[in-house]
Amino acid sequence: MRRSTKFAAALTAGILSLALTACGGSSDDNGSAKESTGSSGAKSDIKVGLAYDIGGRGDQSFNDMAAAGLDKAKSEFGVKASESEATPDEAESAKEDRLIQLADGGYNPVIAIGFAYSEAVGKVAKQFPDTNFAIVDDTANTDANVTNLVFAEEQGSFLVGAAAALKSKTGDIGFVGGVNVPLINKFEAGYDAGAKAVNPNIKIESAYLTQPPDFTGFNDPGKGKTAAEGQFDGGADVVYHAAGGSGLGVFQAAKAAKGLAIGVDSDQYLTAAPDLQPSILTSMIKHVDVAVYNFIKSFKDGDPLTGTVTFDLKSGGVDYSTSGGQVDDIKSKLDDFKKQIIDGTITVPTTVK
C-alpha cells in the first residue's frame, strides 16, 4: 500500500535525536563507491546504496545532510553502505550506471540525492522491481518500489525572507540560486513572499548561476561570490543563497561587503569558517538527514515508506536556524509567521509572483 504520512508523528523525535555532523567521506574523488559500516556494535544484513548529487560529502549543505542521516542509520542499525557521487557535466547514462551498480551489487534500498536523478531512477527502478529506491526532491516516479522524499522549501524560505527584511537597513535584499529549475524557484518564491510580508516595498534582486542542463551552479563558489558581489554592490545588504556548495562564495562576498548572508539546507553557521560566521544571519534548514534516516529505518522495520512523503514546517521538516544569535531579537516575529503557516492562515506560494 502506498502511503505518505506514516512517519509524520515520529519526525520531530527523529530531528531532536539526529546528530547532524557527518563522518568522513566514503567515496573516492572520482566518484567510485566505497563500502562502510557503523561502529556501534550493531549488526544488520541491510546494505544501503546512496548516490550523492554534485559535491557529495563535504559540501556543508544538501549532500552533507543526507550523509548525516546515513551515518545515524549506520551507527544505530549497523547497516553497511556504499556511497558515490555525481560529477560535473556527467552524462545521464553515468547516473543510470551508478544506480545499476548499486542495485546489481545487492544494495537495497538505494537512495538518490537530488532531482537530477529523476530520469535515472525512473529507468533503473523498472529494471530492479525487487529493490526499493528513494529519491530526494522529485515526485515524477510513481512506481511501487520508489519513494519520493520532498520538502516544503518555500515555507522555510518564507521565514528567512522575513528575517532578511526585518534585518535589512537598505530595504534591498538578494537571492542567489544555483540552477534555474522549479525546485530552486520554490526557495525564491518563499523568500520573496516572506520579505514582502514584512515590507511590501522591499527590493529583491535575483540571480541564478547556471541554467539546466548545466548543474555546476551547485558547486562553483567563484560564481556564487561574483553573483552576490553584484547584489551587494547594487545596494543589497542581505543575500540568501540556495546554491549548495556555491554558497561559500556568497558568504565570502557578504564578509567583504560587511553585509549578511543566509545559508541553506543545514545550519551553515556551524560549519562555516570562524571568520565567516559573523556574516551568517540564519539558515533555512531542510532536514534531508531525517528523510534519509526515516526511509532506512522504515526499510529496517520491514514496512518501507512508499509514495510521496512531504516534510514541512508542521512536521519539522524545514525550519530556520538561530545559531550566532543574530535573529534572537526577531525570533518572536518569525515564530508568529511560522505559526500562521502551520495553521493555514498564511499559504506560501511555490512560484515567484
UniProtKB/TrEMBL annotation:
Main location: membrane
Subcellular location: Cell membrane
Record's keyword annotation contains Signal: yes
Alphabetized SUPFAM superfamilies for the sequence: Periplasmic binding protein-like I
Signal peptide start and end residues: 1-22
Database matches in Pfam families: Bmp
Domain ABC transporter substrate-binding protein PnrA-like: 53-350
Membrane topology, as annotated: Lipid-anchor
GO CC, one annotated term: plasma membrane
Cross-referenced Gene3D superfamilies: 3.40.50.2300
Keyword annotations from UniProtKB, A to Z: Cell membrane, Lipoprotein, Membrane, Signal
Keyword Membrane in record: yes
Family: Belongs to the BMP lipoprotein family.
Name of the protein in its database record: Nucleoside-binding protein
